[in-house]
Amino acid sequence: MVENRPVSTFLTHAVLIAGVVFLCFPVWMALVASTHGPEALSKAPIPLWFGDQGFQNYRDLLTGGLPEAGGVPVGLMMLNSLIMALGITIGKIAISLIAAYAIVYFRFPFRMGFFWMIFITLMLPVEVRILPTFDVITRLDMLNSYHGLIVPLIASATATFLFRQFFLTIPDELVEAARIDGAGPMKFFRDILLPLSRTNIAALFIILFIYGWNQYLWPLIVTTEERLYTVVMGIQRMANSGEQLPVWHYIMGTAILALIPPVLVVLAMQKLFVKGLVESEK
Amino acid sequence: MATVDLKGLGKTYQGGVRAVEGVDLTIADGEFIVLVGPSGCGKSTILRMIAGLEAVSEGEVRIGGTAVNRLEPGERDIAMVFQNYALYPHMSVRANMSYGLKNQKTPKDEIARRIAEAARILQLGDYLDRKPRQLSGGQRQRVAMGRAIVRDPKAFLFDEPLSNLDAKLRAELRAEIKALHRRLRSTFIYVTHDQVEAMSLADRIVLMNRGRIEQIGTPMELYDRPASRFVAEFIGTPPMNLLPAESPAARALAQGARLPQGAAWLGVRPEALTLARAGLRGQVGLIEALGADMLVHLVAEGHDAPLILRLHGTARLAEGQEITVAPEEGTLRAFDGAGQALHPTAEPVAAGG
Prior knowledge:
The complex is a heterodimer of chains A (282) and B (353). By secondary structure, chain A is mainly α. Chain A is globular. Helices cover 68% and strands 0% of the residues of chain A. Chain A has a domain at 74-232 and 254-281: MetI-like (MetI-like fold), CATH 1.10.3720. Chain B folds into two domains: 4-224, Rossmann fold (3-Layer(aba) Sandwich), CATH 3.40.50.300; 238-342, CATH 2.40.50.140. Chain B contains nine helices and 17 strands. The N and C termini of chain B lie far apart (49 Å). In chain B, the strands form four sheets. In chain B, strands 6-7-8-3-9-10 form a six-stranded mixed beta sheet, sandwiched between helices. Chain B has a four-stranded antiparallel beta sheet with strand order 2-1-4-5, covered by helices on one side. Chain B: Belongs to the ABC transporter superfamily. Chain B: Residues 4-235 form the ABC transporter domain.
């Protein structure tokens, strides 16, 4: 299959390098732009190498309240985003694990009915149910709060489905061996099911964290106070600052900062994820 | 260590399928019982009902004299070894063995002592800190047996434990299980579809057919005096030769001996047929040389299916050769039209007398 000829090696590398450049160029541009003053980016030619304002720009972003972003420092926005993303991720994983456990291992009336109900909610993302959800949150007096940001996004049919499929692949004999070893339902869940699901949890953590971090519409609707703004909202606000020129150097700086936590999560979880893949049996 | 009693045990699955019915069985303390039968005969279901993994539809399971129908598997004080090992993949060998004891709140030093003992018996000492995936199939099954031993249960249950292993390992582990039983003198209940395992391991075999017990007895009883055609055909490879009692071939084999009243089938074991002067004439068909002995397919006059003979490996025969065979004395068995053995307990039908 793999041909070892210089020409084809050269070609494959050329194509790959082109792809990498294509993907990385915008990030590079953002990084470069965040180190220049406001004027440099408004006139041609756009700089392709770092300027001398980098340190200054990032200090402004992290500590100072920028009027363009509603006077909140980006540091606070990132903290808000982090709380929301972690809340959504951990909440989703916890709830879907328990739901999948119930559906796979317990016999109760309308078991399959409940499964299909959960499954059908796959077709109802936040955007579709946004009005009724907003109504519920308003009545529960959860506007402008962290739980208002997190709770409505916690239910997850995808994760439940994924865990269900995984639990179904665990051999019945393992469950039976645990029963003979005197492990009750809680013990079985804690001692056997959770450790076995580690890989899946890591994979889901990556996906769900990025999902939570990138939430835009729901935080926009449910928060009106600046102290709860998330970083994605902040970028958007800065870019649409009405009559004034957009402050590109700050916007790009915020974008770069907003990239960091998801990248860190991917890097941290990837190790576990790959380890789990290698360790998993057969 | 305890007795296990099954009284009128039955299992009906949802949808009315009767997997097991009317099973009465008393297993003595320290006995090695093998449940054997074709797939779908209900042998595994019985084992699972003893273990408590399957609800009992009717009848009663008693372990050590106490009815356990309503007890959870973990409360029955039994241990089970599964076909696909069922080891906890994320736990080390040591953790696998200690898990059940921890759940019983056994003191730490007692756990350590029992694991050391089990590891010594099963030669697992070097593997205690490995994960199951780093072990071979035979080692995994040893760990599963170790997990059972450390529990020091009233009864050991084995559900086709050797079926996933290759032939050589199977023979090795079979010997180990037998040795283990000698050493522990505990009650062993063992399910298999392999009659060789059943014959070589059991104190008593319980042969199952379609959810019912066909025959209970020592391996040699089942082999020598099968209670029915089913037993005769199931036990022994190759199985017992069966001929319609009225056929000329059967008459030639019986050599004028009087068959019992109502005999419809005549059976004879392959090794009971020997070359003789008078008896059944036939032509040698296929010859399967197995080394120590050879299986000879004999195409007899007046009988469609070939009879199988087990002759000594040094016998000189060629395909197409005409030979005459006769059963050794006392080896003919007769069965009635329903397949039940005639004279199941009395003396076997005598040939030539």
